[in-house]
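Q: I'm writing up a methods section and want to include an example of the input and output format. Could you take the sequence below and give the corresponding predicted structure tokens, formatted cleanly so I can copy it straight into the document?
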Amino acid sequence: MRALCWMGAGELAVRQLPDPELRNAHDAIVRVRRSAACAADLALLAGRGPAVGEVLGHEFVGEVVEVGPEVRRHRAGDRVVVCSSVSCGSCWYCRRELHSCCDNGSTDPAAGEAAWGHPVAGCFGQPRSQGGFAGSHAEYVRVPYADVGAFAVPEPVSDDRALFASDAAPAGWMGADLGGVRPGDVVAVWGAGAVGQVAARAARLLGAERVVVVDRHPDRLRAAERHAGAETLDYRRVDVAAELRERSGGRGPDVCVDAVGTPAATRSLGDRLTGAAPRPVAVREAVHACRKGGSVVVLGAHPGVVDTFPLGAVTAKGLTIRGARQHGPRYIPMLLDRMARDELRTEYLATHHLPLDRAPEAYT
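A: Here is the clean output for your methods example:
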């Protein structure tokens, strides 16, 4: 099969690889119909972790072509969307719907334990050295625990819409859910990428009175206004904290969601040269902007250690801080149902379409 492979820092190439095969009774083989490029891949592209020849991509929809003998929910020909993280469905964490914390979903549990203190779920398109699996920028993908992580796509839902139920949609919805958004709330979302767009839309669907999205890209801000029903702030042009107080009765937002991801931890040239820990700019701003007693939710792939985190503001203001990678199986069935009923439209997030042979262009 053809697949997009990491060949060195900043270098990608489409290569011919062996077709994946069933390795366990709960596996499925999926022929990829759509696979999304994501900003989370950029750290890998720069060379943080992958080995030469590893396949990128973690967000995909496809068609089942083969299943293991213990797979019960799927058969060849089914159109499925596959959760980007891999979980077993039966460990202590999975039984409590904390799927990204799965004990058994990693190819290298020791790597997770060394990095985070405990093993965590693996992810498609992440290096095997970090517990990951071969990615989705390929013609075929092996899907472990297929009955847990693959979901039948309802007939009315297009591939472009279903694609984002793999990762961006459950991550964004989780931001609003973990924040405890309730009717009448004011919600602020930092980051107008795919995750932030869905977080804003989720907050509206959960009854938020006002949703404000903070970013600097005009096209993304316009999309948040049009598709998520959000108000927007360009942080280059306004005092974000002052604007948020003005729009929340002087208190600050009830719920703040950091959906910026890795770029939230910006580093100056001096920091990179000296090895100083990155600074979580969006998280810090969210903590200071949030009302007393409010909630701050941190999404995305953050570094292990950050500097200048305002811990004093967290305790002084009595804030609740929640963070997670997306617990896909908890949300994906509900999201597909909302997609089928046109409550959640995500196809506009697919801004470009490229054949696999041109996949390297998606990262330029």
